[in-house]
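URGENT: need a sanity check before tomorrow's submission.

F., can you look over the Putative oxidoreductase record below? I want to be sure the sequence and structure line up before it goes out.
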Amino acid sequence: MSLLPLPPAFRPLGHTGIAVSPIAWGMWRLAEDGRSAADAAKLVHAALDAGINFLDTADIYGFDGKGGFGDAEALLGEVLAAEPALRGRMVLATKGGILPPLPYDQSPDYLRKAIEDSLRRLKTDVIDLWQIHRPDILAHPHETARVLDDAVASGKVRALGVSNYTQAQIAALNHFLGEKLATTQPEISPLRITCFENGELDQAMQLGLTPMAWSPLGGGRLAAPESARDKAVASALDAVAEAQGVSRTVAAYSWLMAHPAGIVPIIGSQKAERIAEGAAALSVRWTRTDWYAVLVAARGERLP
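Structure tokens as predicted:
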């Protein structure tokens, strides 16, 4: 039985020449638990040493509803200031456009400020990938595109992406951009398979976008499945995991990576051993039969 191809050691980020690992590390919880810069540095090293060069954060990470806005970026900035050589080993991605207490703000003035603030907190001259975190319905895509194009032209940003955008929102913004989008970041996991059938990944392949999957483990539900559906998906993943000597977590990452759109799962763990473990997903092999078994379990019904 033929096997689906393994992901490459590195893949191009969208249409750019930027080479990223096929799995990323996300820093949503980096600033929690009183983590010091030294502790954060250990996690950065764990990712880079495992061959994961794609690091994803956001200005909202660290915000607890009252304070902490920018804390995750600032902590990473401390790491980079202490060890400047690390910056050259990573592709640094961040996000902006959420402004507490407002839901979302992509007005031109705020977008410019958000980019400048992220550069300052991260202590870097350029952000490799800057993404709009969630769409602002009150922002005209033409105005948004002008700010983003200016950021690229000025050398402050190398590539552009969006997160949690609909297909229509992606198409509208991309229409007005001179520097076309390189990435899209929706929620994708073996428990959230909407994008496989609603056209999101088809659009990504059509436009040459690299899909970055947030919450690839279903918000932790794959680790402790409770519903019948979650247990069925876990069982289908376990069949491959046990046969190849990896964890269910690694099998889940690799299942996403087997899709031809080149999905990049974002590891959310803030534990060095879990970050390093993720790299094992690059060697897990899937047959079409095994891959579809997970999809069918997630659907809860047979394919037509």
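My own read: The chain has one domain: 11-224+253-284. The longest strand covers residues 157-163. If you see anything odd, call me.
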